[in-house]
Amino acid sequence: MRQYYSIGETAKAVDLTPETLRHYDRIGLVKPSKTDEWTQYRYYTELDIVRLNTVKILQIMDLSLKEIKKVLEYDDLERIVAFLGEAEKRADEKIAALQFGRSKIQLAKRDYEKKIREKQSVEGSFIQEFPLRLIMLSDTLNTPSLDTFWNYLSHFYERLDPSVRGQFEFEDLAGIYTEDGVSRLFALCIRCVDVDGLKTLPAGRYLCANCTEENRDAVLKELMEEAHTQHNTTPGFSVHIVMVAGILHWNYQVQVYLG
C-alpha cells in the first residue's frame, strides 16, 4: 500500500517550508500525488520527496525553477545524460571557485591572527635587525590597491618563465621598494633562482616606523632625517611593508637601511 505524507511531514523531510511546497504545486513543478477533495490537504509519496530533493540539488547549481521544470520533464535518456554531464561540469567549476575563495579566507584569517599575536603599540621609530632578503620587483605595479592585493602573488609567478616558475616560492606579503624616487611593488622570495627583476635587501639594522597611507611620506622623511642626524648615514632606498589593518584597510611599516 502506498504511503502518504502530509505537507508538514514532507516539508520537514526535504527541509523546505510548506509554503514553498504549495508554490511548487501552483507552478506545476512538484505536484502532490494526492489532494483531498474536501479539505484540499496535500499528500506526498516517497517519489515526490525524491523529486523535491532533486529540485533542491538543481537549485544549488543555479538553475531557475523554469529550467528545473523543463529538465524534470525530459523523457529522453540521452538528453538526461547530456544534461547531467553539463551539470557535473558546472558543479566542478563552482567547487573550484569555492575552494579558491576558502584558501584566500584561510590566508587572510591566519594573517589577522598573526597581526593580533604580534600587535605592538609602537610609537615613533625603532631599530630592527633583518637577514639578507631577496625581493622580486614588479614590472608594472607601483601603487597598492584592492585589485592588486587580490591574488597578489600570481602577478609575480606569471612574469616568470615557465621553465623556472617551479623553483620560486614567495612569502604571503606585499611591499613597496623605493629608490631614486621610483617606487615598485615587490614580493619577498622564500626560494628562487637568479633571474631579471630580483633585488637584494642587505642584512643589518633598519630604522623602522609604522604609519598610514596618509602620513607615509611624512614618516619616511622623518626616518631619513633621523638616519642622517643620529646614525650618520644616508639610506639609498626605503622599504614599505604592507600591514593589514582591516578587511579593506592596510597600513605600512617603513624601513630604511642603517647598515
Q: Can you describe this structure?
A:
With 259 residues, the chain is α+β, with helices and mostly antiparallel strands. It has 2 domains: 5-73, Orthogonal Bundle (Multidrug-efflux Transporter Regulator, Chain: A, Domain 2), CATH 1.10.1660; 126-257, Multidrug-efflux Transporter 1 Regulator Bmrr, Chain A (Alpha-Beta Barrel), CATH 3.20.80. It is built from 9 helices and 12 strands. Strand 7 (175-179) and strand 8 form a beta hairpin. The longest helix is centred in the middle third of the chain and has 42 residues, at 77-118. The radius of gyration is 30 Å and the shape is elongated. The mean pLDDT is 88.
List descriptors.
Multidrug-efflux Transporter 1 Regulator Bmrr, Chain A, single chain, 9 helices, 259 residues, three-stranded antiparallel beta sheet, nine-stranded antiparallel beta sheet, 2 domains
